[in-house]
Structure formats: C-alpha cells, structure tokens
C-alpha cells in the first residue's frame, strides 16, 4: 500500500517478484533450525551420559544406586512424562482442527503431567539429601545429579514455555505463528521424553541391577 | 529437495500452510506410539523389579536394547521423523548426531574403563575399599 502511494504519478503499479525461494519457507526453516538445536541439546545430554557412564560406579564408599533408588517411584515419574507426551499429541491434533478450547485443555493437561514429573523429581532429590546422598558425597552422585537435574531443568523450562504459549493462544488464537511455536514445543517436549528413556534405563534400571 | 522447494514456492502461501499442518501425526499414529512406548517401558521395569532373568548382564543388554527401540518409536511416532522431512536435512542431522553420540559414549566409557583398570592399585580410595 505504501509503495503504491509513493510511486511517481503516471507510473504503473510496481510489480514485485519473489526471487528468494527461501522466503516462502520461513516456517519450514524454523522447524529445521529448531531440530538442529535439539540435536545440539542431544550432544549436551550425550556428554552428561558419558560422564555418568565413567563416574557412575565411583561410590567413594558412599551409598550405591541399589540402596538409594526407588523404582516404583521412578515408574510413576516415567508414566507422568509418557502421559504428557500423548496429551501433547492430542493438543497438536486439536490444533490441526483449529479448535482453540480443546487445544488449550490438552496443553493444560500436558503442563500438569509435566509439573507432576518435576514435583516428584524434586521430592526424590530431597529424599536423597535426607538419606545422606547429596551431590558432593561421591563422583557417582555428582554425575547423577548433573544428568538428572539437567533433564529436570529442561522439563521445567518446557512447562514455562507451555504457559507462555497458552497465554499467546488465548490472546491471539491459533494463528500461523502460534502454530509454529506449538510445533517447536512439541518437538522439544517429545525430545525430553526420549532423553528420559535413556535416563531411566541407564541410571535407574541399570543402577539397581548392579 | 530442489523440486519440492520449487513446488512449494510456486503453489504459494496457502498451500504451504496446509502442507506444514499435515506434517505431524494422526490420532492412530500417536496411539500406536503411545501403546508401543507403554509396552517398551513396562517390560524393562518388570525385568528389573521382578528379577525375572537371573543373569544381570543379559538383563542389562535386554533393557538397553528395549530402550533403544523405544527411542526409535518416539522419533518416528512422536517426533514424526522420516528420511523425507525437510528434504532429508533433519534426517542427515539426526544421523550425524547419532554418530557423534556413539563415538562420544563408546569412546569415553572404553578409554576411561581401561584408565581405571590400569590406575587401580595407585588409587588411595580403592585401596581403602579393598581393605574393608
């Protein structure tokens, strides 16, 4: 509109050509970029897993995983994260149908499952502190807290992001930008569930097996 | 890849929205992923908590394998990865990352295991532990 007004009198309306093909792909490249971020995050977790793999049996005469870990509690934690994954999937399906209210409800349910996960994890850490197993007790515990709390911090940030997006959807509805953001968070959320598979297998189950 | 970009650019914005909205799963695919994940989570917990297999090395290998399978299930059904998404670039990035992760994990554990093994008699803590 501005261009039409500022065109010299008598000149034909300017014609714009799209020469940059990537311009149309802004959403596509956002998803690719976010995927690359997840891959780099994956490397962070891989280094923490490697650290745990190296130090995870160095108890320094302190408590061992078998004495500390409560597998039924971890199973509940795992269930919370898995339920939150499927409810986020339902939110995405409702988003596809442009149903704002249902999307918001499923997002809220996802957030509650995520919050339950973080709550249970904090409770587990408090319990471990009372058991005489703080991070500085042994190399095993240092690497354990670093790995598990990094994951927990990611989930907490995911919940914060989820709340922000729920406010955005409430204010602006399911516009293209919000859909794109929700799809990024979807990748992030499912990715955290994927990392948790590694955590409960390598840290908890294999720890108790030893 | 190139043909896909031309197509999307030519078809305009509206088409692209519809295209990207269809980029994630259906109810069936989410439920398939969920049911598979539940099964692949319950089995390792059952194996460890119920002491089903006497041999802990076998149990370790089995739960590691099940964990690996569940990760693949998540990538396919929840992250909707395929070799074709984003013209294959996400898949390339995934393969590259997996390669790095495997080198990092296997290399660290391998090298440090041998280091620990060779340093064992020199470690004051281990001497104390052995003396107990």
Short description:
The complex is a heterodimer of chains A (210) and B (132). Chain A has helices spanning 2-6, 26-55, 65-68, 71-96, 100-130, 139-172, 176-209.
Any key phrases for this structure?
heterodimer, A: 210 residues, mainly alpha, Four Helix Bundle (Hemerythrin (Met), subunit A), B: mainly alpha
General description of the model:
The complex is a heterodimer of chains A (210) and B (132). Chain A has 210 residues and is mainly alpha-helical. Chain A has one domain: Cytochrome c oxidase, subunit III, four-helix bundle (Four Helix Bundle (Hemerythrin (Met), subunit A), Up-down Bundle), CATH 1.20.120. In chain A, 78% of the residues lie in helices and 0% in strands. Chain A contains 7 helices and no strands. Chain A has helices spanning 2-6, 26-55, 65-68, 71-96, 100-130, 139-172, 176-209. The longest helix of chain A has 34 residues, at 139-172. Chain A is elongated. The model of chain A has no long low-confidence stretch (mean pLDDT 90). Chain B has 132 residues and is mostly helical. Chain B has a domain at 27-79. Helix content of chain B is 78%, strand content 0%. In chain B, helix 3 (27-49) runs antiparallel to helix 4 (56-77). Chain B is flat.
What share of residues of chain B is helical?
over 70%
The main pleated sheet of chain B reads as:
none
Overall body shape of chain A = elongated
User: How many separate helices of chain B?
Assistant: 6
Number of strands of chain A: 0
Report how far the terminal alpha carbons of chain B are from each other. Answer: 65 Å
CATH superfamily of chain A: Cytochrome c oxidase, subunit III, four-helix bundle
Low-confidence stretches of chain B: 1-22
Q: Would you tell me which CATH topology of chain A applies?
A: Four Helix Bundle (Hemerythrin (Met), subunit A)
Number of helices of chain A: 7
Q: In CATH, what is the class of chain A?
A: Mainly Alpha
Question: Helicity of chain A, in percent?
Answer: over 70%
Q: How many E strands of chain B?
A: 0
How far apart are the first and last residues' alpha carbons of chain A, in Å? 71 Å
Encode the helix/strand succession of chain A as letters. HHHHHHH
**Portion in beta strands of chain B:** under 5%
Largest interface: pair, residues per side: A-B, 54 and 58 residues
Return residue spans of chain A where pLDDT drops below 50 for at least 5 consecutive residues.
none
Order of helices and strands of chain B: HHHHHH
